[in-house]
Design a protein that fits this description.
406 residues, 4-stranded mixed beta sheet, alpha/beta, 2 domains, homotetramer, Dihydrodipicolinate Reductase, domain 2, Rossmann fold
Chain lengths: 406, 406, 406, 406
């Protein structure tokens, strides 16, 4: 007995997920499967509502997923975890098992970052891939994407980077332009996996969305490549929780001319991301992303601090506690304190589908390079100094209104 | 020995405070005195920063205060309370005693609202005023304002209504147009004190700012009067705390297409406003103001509730605890909880000075009627459906940029 | 195929649940079934740990459930709701379906309180019961309990009252002693259902546990009856959440000689209990229970307030936000604010099993009347002025140590 | 003109404060001066209420203060800071200026810890003291205490250690007994200042209270000395805020057999203590004190974490935000979150007066060695495994009841 649920449709957009069996990817895939079957409402997907729903963005039925993954396991084993922690409804997982199995079969071995090598659950094909030269690796990744597009007769593939936070790496000279990057790859120089993936995606003709704080396509050489191949890309680091709140609240203090003395943020994470951030070098990548927005909105006089702690019992349910100390008229000192508790995956997944649709839309219109309209989705939006969430969102609205059919 | 601190200046703008010895008025007056002497920084005053500081708004040195008040006491006795509770710095109060005494001498007996009559501390002149006809009352109030303007050679007087919350009153037929209102006043019909004050202000040629949830100038008859006498006015109910936060945060949920299931707000007030809101009929006025913004932004499907409790030990330090229950992708339920603690007076006073400056500026340019640009200052902005704080503030910025000197 | 899971055991203790298909009863029953099968850990059951585990209390395997219920439906339909809201694990429900069906078959029609009559889901047998005289009703209830004991050959039955909060009723003259109560029942006077149940239980020879704020066995006439029939009983109102926290924290303030100025408690409930508390008369019953402990510990100078709001989206997940304003040395004012979120049923159910075991133990030892050792389980412990949770718990520990085998 | 306020009394108890111009010492001294004059209520002083007020403890009038201090400045300059931040009422400071000046004149140069040497505000006499041998230093400190006792004809002096947190030092062999410690001092070995102070106090015949996490008298050699000279002593680290709450709340979770999965504590400090804890080696001293109580009550399975951050804008107003993740019946996961804001000095000062009175009382009765009855005052009580605040407090109550006059 064959599951025909996808074969009878003619999907025209491929979504290639790097980290395809991770929590976000699993939540996203099952969520889209569930939406297709009418099992859930499209809550949290901004592109489903006005004014974005007038743009003719890709329908859920027109999407097919594939991806890279370094870990062993199946999508349904990821789903079991998400059911256990109350993210994925069990009925939905059961109803979408055919779709999930079909996606599982399309997942290809991913690339280990140099810092990942101790992980016990890495699949053997990924380990084999590690023996190749850098050039051979990017060609393999690129070919996987191209093969996916051709096999499914897809009009376009958008690549979304959803893997773990890499250790922070300072900018290198070999990243300054494309020629030097190509030389470094040929010389087999160590290069962050996120950059190799971005390189491969763009070389495969695919728009690239970097949902992590990793370098991805944000180094000058890859921005140059995106311009040359005339493809859109965006990033970095999805704005899903505490930073979203900060960038929504801080503008109010600025508008009221209140003086924010201190803003302390404490983040508790229990998932794989939290575990990897227990490594201080990886943590640095994340903290840079999380601290910058406040400074941009409130200025450098505000004492800011962002803590990230691994609290295993929380699993996917991240909790942030922030304390804001501010001064008003007459020098009176006042406080705001908030606690935010949400599922990391359920907050992130709908942003991915929004970004995929917007990247597909931009590519279809011939727009390329950094996508400034997506700033509201990211903690560290590329080439953007505006961190005020509301201002960012108004830019997206304006972008949509300009392009909506009259 | 005479305090010369004001006599040597030539103030050109009068600010007439109704409730002139209340906490907000006292904080405002001492604050402006302190700013003139360079004792404090202008924190919390939006019109001190860009782009509003380019409009040539009235300087602190160019302002003289007067007002109506129903209670006995002096400004300095109000200040003692505010010092005790850590709002006014004692040094500032000491340094500004001359200015305060001069203001005290300019305060005239105010009008009791019918619901205030049990108050023990009402001054005898206010009680005497109560014996007059409604028409005689408004003439007395009007004459006080005119006399203030003439005595000090002021270019303009702005009247700001800062008195206690009145009991909620349903709209009346006699308020539908100016002719009927005049007839009702002549017939000595009971009319809310806030309406009589607004009537008197407009008849005295003064722009009117209603900082309370009371009716003030928002009834059709008085809006008509403002149009006829070509004066600007604005209100209602200063947005200083929990509602400010709600209207800053709720748009984020809307922008992210998250479904807010419940928004419970618990307000604890310890000041005179809190005590008067222990009366359920007055409370209704306030709750209407505080509940509407959320419904406007999030829709009627959200379960909302606004509680206001009198907690005497807090005095001027109001505390709000809000609980937001929302649903994201996959139906996952998440929460945001915040606690906001601030001085009611220190939050409100700088908004009053902003509104006075903007009303003065509008009047100087010949603008009249409702001032839509001031929506961001109010819980229930007149003739305005937008409650999103950021959108409101952008309107104010746009208003300023259009009128700034090139 | 027959489920043999219970038939092979020889249970010797019956637990008769009034409100047998409610959330607490369902959580309790499935929980005990799961514990028997080793599917879950006995978390939250104090009698499982030292020193109580040395008393030889009844084992989970030795318990059989029955009960009264007024609503239609089955235990498994209650379980579906609890699974949906993340209280009961679905696997546990599936694994215990045989036990649940067996229990369902033992549930008998309950008695409507006069205030319940509008409920749409009441079963027809309960409605029929409503037509009987008060005397006939209590005899029917009594007979159900006796029949349960005899049919299953039980050594003893403990009756636990878990139904909804009744409207507050002032003490009546007819409750002053047993003779008058009997006369009132014979005269067919309206009597709270909770009293009729308690009467029936004691007349059936069963110890009675009142887990609600309802009158239950706390009226003088029924306390007299318990003494006469030499049966133990306890109540009122299980201390599961906010009151538990209050009575744990307030003693610290007292021990440190800190002056608590205000203690504001805001409770949000989304379950049937919350809905019934939307009725202000029922609410009064609950608020009395929740307010008294603080006053007992901190004295009457503390301003206290307890709010209860119905927030449907929370379902069984009650959330309490408390604000404590206190004064320390030098008069410095300080604050404590807490937010507690827990499953009402999962917090309550293990206390019920503890109380059942303790009532059974007391009865076996010939102890009768009010059980003072159970004060730590109740918001309004009968005949007990101590509300300090730690002191209450130490009494229970002392009770156990005195009775433990040497 | 001479201030006679103290000379007319005949104080019989000396309190020698190490860190005599710090925030706690200043708050304490002004507070006691104010209590003598009837300017404030004795809030926060447990020994003022039953059952401790029946022990005949030393009256406020019978106490005279002196102390050691390393910083320049005066008590009144410390008071100015505390007034600015709303801890000390200005009127109290003004009214007690004579007492404060008299105390200032009795303060002697203190000893720098090796890690303090970079501090800019150290007084020159303290620097000179640094040039002496270890032996000469302890003799100087001892002589200061003896001179204070003799000059004022005091019956007894209690020494209280209130200086900054020292860097953590591992146990040394030379601390194992008194002979080795004496040898180390003679050999001029580096020894923590807190140990030298404790040594000097005991050699001066004074009971010693260590209110800090520093070693103080807790090393074996000094415990031996206290036994030999038959003096009582107690410590370490005053339990004033977050740890007080933890040790009040954790026992409730244990009593209810709930499983605490994670307890994250985030402390924000703005005072000198906070600044010194920005040094990770000093932080370690403090974190050890703060983490142990939870582990003792809840066991090692609970994931615990204690963060301490320096947030300068808070000054003396420390704020703690704790997040407790726990599991109940059926495995349901629940949360408690609290925020505690209090003045560090106003919380600590009354505990110091309690401890001084109790040490004086013990010494008067000939009790010596560690004072186990004081466990409830400390984060790391000496020779005590009980961290449950309520159990600790009951021990103190029992101690008092045993010794109260019948």
């Amino acid at each position: 007995m064959v599951d025909e649920s996808e074969s009878v449709r003619s999907p025209s957009l491929g979504v290639w997920l790097i980290g395809a069996r991770g929590s976000i990817a699993s939540s996203l895939a099952y969520g889209i499967f569930g939406l297709r079957q009418g099992l859930i409402d499209p809550i949290g997907i901004a592109t489903e509502v006005a004014p974005f729903n007038a743009l003719g963005l890709r329908a859920f039925d027109d999407i097919v997923f594939g991806g890279h993954e370094i870990s062993n396991g199946t999508l349904s084993s990821s789903a079991v975890e998400l059911v256990r922690h109350g993210i994925l409804p069990r009925d939905l997982v059961a109803a979408c098992s055919g779709d999930a199995a079909a996606l599982d079969a399309r997942i290809r071995p991913g690339l280990l970052d140099v810092a990942d090598s101790g992980d016990a659950h890495v699949n053997s094909e990924t380990l084999a891939l590690g023996g190749l030269s850098q050039r051979a690796k990017v060609e393999r990744l690129r070919d996987d994407i191209i093969h996916f597009r051709e096999e499914h007769g897809l009009e376009r593939v958008v690549v979304v980077y959803l893997a773990s936070t890499e250790p922070w790496t300072d900018e290198r000279e070999s990243w300054a332009d494309l020629a030097r990057l190509d030389a470094a790859i040929d010389a087999n120089d160590e290069t962050p996996a996120s950059c190799l993936y971005a390189y491969a995606a763009l070389r495969a003709g695919a728009p690239f969305v970097n949902f992590t704080p990793n370098r991805g396509a944000s180094i000058p050489a890859l921005r140059q490549l995106a311009e040359e191949v005339r493809l859109p890309h965006c990033g970095n680091d999805g704005k899903t929780g505490e930073t979203l709140l900060k960038s929504s609240l801080a503008p109010m203090f600025a508008a009221r001319a209140l003086r924010v003395l201190s803003w302390q943020g404490y983040n508790m994470l229990g998932n794989k991301d939290g575990a990897s951030l227990a490594d201080p070098v990886r943590l640095r990548s994340k903290q840079r992303s999380k601290d910058a927005p406040l400074r941009a909105i409130l200025g450098d006089e505000t004492h800011t601090s962002v803590g990230i702690d691994y609290v295993p019992s929380l699993h996917d349910w991240k909790t942030a506690m922030d304390f804001v100390h501010f001064q008003g008229f007459l020098g009176a000192k006042m406080t705001l304190q908030f606690t935010w508790t949400g599922s990391d995956s359920a907050l992130a997944a709908p942003l991915v589908i929004d970004l995929v649709r917007l990247a597909d839309f931009a590519a279809a219109r011939g727009e390329f390079g950094v996508m400034p309209q997506t700033a509201c989705f990211f903690k560290s939006p590329l080439e953007c100094d505006v961190h005020d969430f509301h201002a960012q969102f108004q830019s997206l609205v304006a972008y949509a209104l300009e392009r909506a059919p009259k």
